[in-house]
Structures are given as C-alpha cells and as structure tokens.
Design goal:
Blueprint lengths: L2 H14 L6 H15 L6 H14 L6 H19 L1
Helix pairs in contact: 1-2, 1-3
Length: about 80
C-alpha cells in the first residue's frame, strides 16, 4: 500500500475516533488535517504518531463471538433435515 493511501486511511479512521481524543491529541490531529489538505505526504515520525493514535483508540472486536450466534441455527437445520 502506498504511503499516501495508508495516510489517508489512517486519517479517516482517526476522524471517526475524534471524539475520544484528548485536547493535545486533537490539536495534533487538526495539524495532520491541515498537512493532508496541502497534499503533503507525512514523514516517518508523523506516520508513526498517526499509527500510534489510531492503535490507541481503535477497538478490536473479537469476531468469533459472532460465530456462536449463528452456529445453533445451522445445527438445528441439519437436525431437521436428518429427521
């Protein structure tokens, strides 16, 4: 993935999490927005900080919990077909 594309995706993710940011992180995010509007590609330190902010606030959900919701239906359908 190109750096600019990754930068754009990280900025979109962080925009969704904007309400959770502290005041200092919010001011830093606003600076990132201004730099991106100028079509500036971030340097390695800025990209590192952007990744840290996204990792700090992004919630990773365990998708295996959703599988348990759907398995009983499939088991019930198989039992009904066997009868």
């Amino acid at each position: 993935m190109s750096r600019y594309r990754e930068q754009k995706n990280l900025m979109e993710q962080l925009a969704k999490l904007q309400a959770k940011l502290t005041w200092s992180e919010l001011s830093e995010f606003k600076m990132f927005i201004k730099r991106q509007k100028d079509d500036e590609e971030f340097d390695t330190l800025s990209m590192k900080r952007l990744r840290e902010l996204v990792a700090k606030y992004e919630v990773k959900r365990d998708k295996s919990a959703f599988d348990n919701l759907f398995k009983p239906r499939q088991d019930q359908n198989n039992e009904e077909n066997d009868k």
